[in-house]
Every structure is written in structure tokens, then in C-alpha cells.
Design goal:
Elements lengths: L3 E12 L2 E13 L4 E5 L6 H9 L6 E6 L2 E2 L7 E4 L11 H7 L8 H14 L15 H14 L4 E5 L7 H17 L3 E5 L3 H7 L2 E6 L2 E7 L11 H24 L5
Parallel strand pairs: 3-8, 3-9, 6-7, 7-8
Antiparallel strand pairs: 1-2, 1-4, 4-5, 9-10
Bound molecules: adenosine-5'-triphosphate.
The site of adenosine-5'-triphosphate has 12 residues, from strand 1, strand 2 and helix 1.
Keywords: ATP-binding, Nucleotide-binding, Transport
GO molecular function: ATP binding; ATP hydrolysis activity
Protein name: ABC transporter ATP-binding protein
């Protein structure tokens, strides 16, 4: 099992005298094998939630479990892809992917074979011998995805992985992720600021407001998805108004007046 469960999770940070309540009584069930996106304005706790899944941080109260097991620290069952590629500049693409497998117990030969197969799956066989500075941003991000998937994680955590890519490369990366997820339905938690991206990729979308997931949408469209259909646009509009309502709620909670 690799479902992700948040059960009444609170996360508070202390900054000087100030306490920041980043997650409030947040409960959520991400099903095994689904592609789940989180949307919401800046500061609503999306990255905080991802960090708890990844085990980079601990909840102040409540529980986070993966496959029924409480998350206490990072582990090879949860792979992370960040917005900025985090490749080792002195290693080739192949070695960067293989490096993620160091602690798997696989022999060096097996690690390299698996890394080569994973690079092929993201369309980068020809670039296996290149170092990160010889790769475009989109290619670097694909190496990062290959490194994450080569670990055969139970959960894939992605924090705005395509935000820095130009529109065309971003579209290619989205198509790749859809394709990979259909081949290997790894439970995926994906943060984005783009409603369209969430609608193109996800099985379900959680909208965050005031430190919790205020609403979850099912995305009923078959792949490949068409962002120009009336149904797609209706759902886009509905999610947009839900996010706007969340912004108003946050501002009221913070004591803003219009
Ligand atoms: N390590 C930290 N120390 C103090 N405050 C933090 C820390 N991490 C997050 N916060 C605060 O917690 C709140 C939620 O932050 P978080 O980064 O999770 O939001 P987000 O929805 O991911 O925002 P963005 O879309 O801008 O990335 C914010 O008020 C943020 O300033």
C-alpha cells in the first residue's frame, strides 16, 4: 500500500516572537496510485504539506502516514522532484540517476543498467554521458524525474517541477509525466500554481486555503486531455472561484479589509 494520509495535521513555525500556523487540522487521503495535485495561493501550506510527506519536517500534531506507516524522516520509498533541478554538476546524467540508487543494495552494474533504462524512458538515452551544464533546463528536470523514478518509490513528491520551464518545454514535460504515470502509476503528490496544469495531469485536485485542503475535485477527463473543451473550462472556472474564495478567507483571518 502506498496511500498518503493526513489526519488532523497541524504545523506551526516560530519566527522570532511570531507563530505561523502553516497547516491547521489538515486531513486528506491520497489514494494509492493516483495523481493528486495541490493548488492554492502562496502561503497556504502546499510546500509544508509536501515536506511532511517527504519527511523533511514533522507535524506539530496529528499524523502523516504512507501505506499506514507514520512518516518520521526522509526515506527511499518517497522520491522528491524540486522546482530547480538538484543534479550533481560533476556527474553525467547517467551517474546522477545511478547515484540515487547508491543505498539500494544493487550492484554498480545493476545501478547503471537501471539508470540507463530510466533515462531511455524519459527520452534522454543520447544525453546519458552529458553533465548538467550541457543539458537544457527541461532536460535537467527530466534527469531529475528519471532519478526519482529509478528509485521505484511508493510515492513521488513534486514541488512545482515545471514552473521555471518555458511554455513549449513545459507542455512536453507535462505530456511525459502523464505518459510515465500511466505506465507506472506511482502515488504522486504534485504542487503547481497552474490550474490548467493540474487539470491536464491529475486524477484529483485539492485546493488549499488557510492551511488546509478546503475542497477536492475529481477530474473526469480521459487522457490525452483537451484544455479547450467547455467542460475543461467550466471546471477551470469553478476551481478558480474556489481559490478566490480561499484568498478572501485568508485575508479575513489575517485581519485584512478590502
Ligand atoms: N521553515 C519555516 N519557518 C517559518 N515559517 C515557514 C517555514 N516554512 C513555511 N513557513 C510559513 O508557512 C506558511 C506556509 O508556507 P508554504 O511554503 O507551505 O506555502 P505555499 O502554499 O507552498 O506557498 P508558495 O506557493 O509561495 O510556495 C507561510 O506563511 C510561510 O511563510
Amino acid at each position: 500500500m502506498s496511500d498518503v494520509v493526513f489526519d488532523s495535521v497541524d504545523k506551526r513555525f516560530t519566527q522570532g516572537q511570531r507563530e505561523i500556523h502553516a497547516l491547521r487540522e489538515c486531513s486528506l487521503h491520497i489514494r494509492e496510485g493516483e495523481f493528486f495535485s495541490l493548488l492554492g495561493p502562496s502561503g497556504t501550506g502546499k510546500t509544508t504539506l509536501l515536506n511532511l510527506v517527504a519527511g523533511f519536517d514533522r507535524a506539530t500534531s496529528g499524523f502523516v502516514t504512507v501505506g499506514g506507516v507514520p512518516v518520521c524522516r526522509p526515506g527511499p520509498d518517497r522520491a522528491v522532484v524540486f522546482q530547480a533541478p538538484t543534479l550533481m554538476p560533476w556527474l553525467t546524467a547517467l551517474d546522477n540517476v545511478a547515484a540515487g540508487l547508491k543505498h539500494t543494495g544493487l550492484s554498480r552494474q545493476h545501478r547503471r543498467e537501471r539508470a540507463a533504462a530510466q533515462l531511455a524512458e524519459v527520452g534522454l538515452s543520447d544525453a546519458a554521458g552529458r553533465r548538467p551544464h550541457q543539458l537544457s533546463g527541461g532536460m535537467q528536470q527530466r534527469v531529475g524525474i528519471a532519478r526519482a523514478l529509478a528509485m521505484r518509490p511508493a510515492v513521488l513528491v513534486m514541488d512545482e517541477p515545471f514552473a521555471a520551464l518555458d511554455a513549449y518545454v513545459r507542455q512536453e514535460a507535462q505530456a511525459l509525466v502523464v505518459d510515465l504515470h500511466r505506465k507506472h502509476p506511482v502515488t504522486t503528490v504534485f504542487v503547481t500554481h497552474s490550474i490548467e496544469e493540474a487539470l491536464l495531469l491529475s486524477d484529483r485536485i485539492g485546493v488549499m486555503a488557510a492551511g488546509t485542503v478546503s475542497h477536492v475535485y475529481d477530474v473526469p477527463f480521459e487522457h490525452p486531455r483537451d484544455a479547450t473543451t467547455p467542460q475543461f473550462n467550466d471546471l477551470r472556472r469553478e476551481i478558480w472561484s474556489r481559490i478566490e474564495a480561499g484568498v478572501r478567507l485568508d485575508r479575513e483571518a489575517a485581519g485584512w479589509t478590502a
